[in-house]
């Protein structure tokens, strides 16, 4: 801006002409880009020289060990991961809907119970909840989670997911315009009837994208089933990978398991963002 | 007991929203077959009055009697009473997750418990009546505002209401679509439907209404035949409102 004060340059109708001193913005941008490329190449070359690729491949990508994980990787581990997370998602959805409706209830104690549940279980680490479930039989002698190991895993994920689901569903229910309830009531529907046939179906549509993301998050949290001490036919991906890695004293199974998670989570994430876009267009 | 000679009767109706008194003692009645238009400036309480008739708003005090049934009785079966009153909203409020046909069928099925075939037949008849039989399978978002509003009218008619309430049914429409909806309403009036219409369409009020009610500040200022209230208004407030509405480029600013 110093050029503006030079008296030699007469100000035209559009102000002082831009100064030509120093580098032009285009030149500056060019230099900045060259610096960025040089930095990138330097890091890549450094890593390529520094890492012992043979040893890395030996430990993380050994084809013989990877082959050992089949077919159990899919027939047992992935199957169980999906059982735990789909089961947990299903019950989390139902419980979440119940708490969302209680949170909006006209009965004040229902609201308090819902708020307490949501605040407590949203604030606790998922691992802590699984540890609590592990110790449940000690706290309640004679009590057993129905469904055995599957039941315990699903219960844990249900508790982890339902608090988030309740908040998501509440947002969805509140996003349905008030006129929808009014139109339904003016046609003679009871409040409950209007909720079930008009409001809830629309709310569910609204929350499909965020709940898809919640499913992905539950799928990852299903790895915590590891802490329930599962074994044999009940292992899910992470536990399976961990066990195989110990057996072969090699990290390849963990990498294989990671890739298996991504096979599920990346398409789901993609699906969620597509649904989101479609909804943005529809409304 | 009130003798059943009014379709709807309103006595000393008051409605407060917190400290704001929106309706300050409304008395009036609509007889079977009558078409009554309620006009007035915005904020005059016309929509609130309409919404009190089917208890979408709970009146603070006063009585609303529909076909001899007192709706303001705390123990009334309000859902049963609302079946007799059709309501058409400014924003249409069609159910966006259902096709036009499903919109007209859903309450017949779930509320009146009609069979699928019967409900569909009645739905198609009513959609035909409002002139959109060919859009049965379209979703509301695929329809124009005028088409949506006509589906909403068909949806209300399919319940065989004794009284139809219209809450500014053309206010959200593009000007060229207003006529489609008003024509359907005029046909309905000619068939003898009892109608209570909150509107800014003075031409409709003048041509179709048996009676026009002018409201301002939460009270009824003037109530009489359309020709009288719109043609020769008695009160200064009515006159100045009509001047503003009928000749909007020459108002005293």
UniProtKB/TrEMBL annotation, chain A:
Cellular component GO terms held in the UniProt record: ATP-binding cassette (ABC) transporter complex
Keywords linked to the UniProt accession: Amino-acid transport, Cell membrane, Membrane, Transmembrane, Transmembrane helix, Transport
Chief location of this protein within or outside the cell: membrane
Compositional bias (Low complexity): 11-22
Region (Disordered): 1-25
Segments passing through the bilayer: 34-53, 82-102, 114-140, 254-273
Gene3D superfamilies: MetI-like
Subcellular location: Cell membrane
GO biological process: amino acid transport
Ranges for domain ABC transmembrane type-1: 78-272
Membrane-protein topology: Multi-pass membrane protein
InterPro entries: AA_ABC_transptr_permease_3TM, ArtM/GltK/GlnP/TcyL/YhdX-like, MetI-like, MetI-like_sf
Entry's Gene Ontology molecular function annotations: transmembrane transporter activity
NCBIfam families reported for this sequence: HEQRo_perm_3TM
Family: Belongs to the binding-protein-dependent transport system permease family. HisMQ subfamily.
Listed name of the protein: Polar amino acid transport system permease protein
Lineage: Bacteria, Bacillati, Actinomycetota, Actinomycetes, Streptosporangiales
From TrEMBL, chain B:
Domain of life from the UniProt record: Bacteria
Record domain ABC transporter: where: 8-242
EC number(s) on file: 7.4.2.1
Keywords of the record: Amino-acid transport, ATP-binding, Cell membrane, Membrane, Nucleotide-binding, Transport
Signal peptide start-end: none
GO molecular function, one term: ATP binding
Topological category with respect to the lipid bilayer: Peripheral membrane protein
The family this protein is said to belong to: Belongs to the ABC transporter superfamily.
Subcellular localization(s) per the UniProt record: Cell membrane
Classification via Pfam families: ABC_tran (PF00005)
Class in the EC hierarchy, top level: translocase
Protein name according to UniProt: ABC-type polar-amino-acid transporter
Chief location bin: membrane
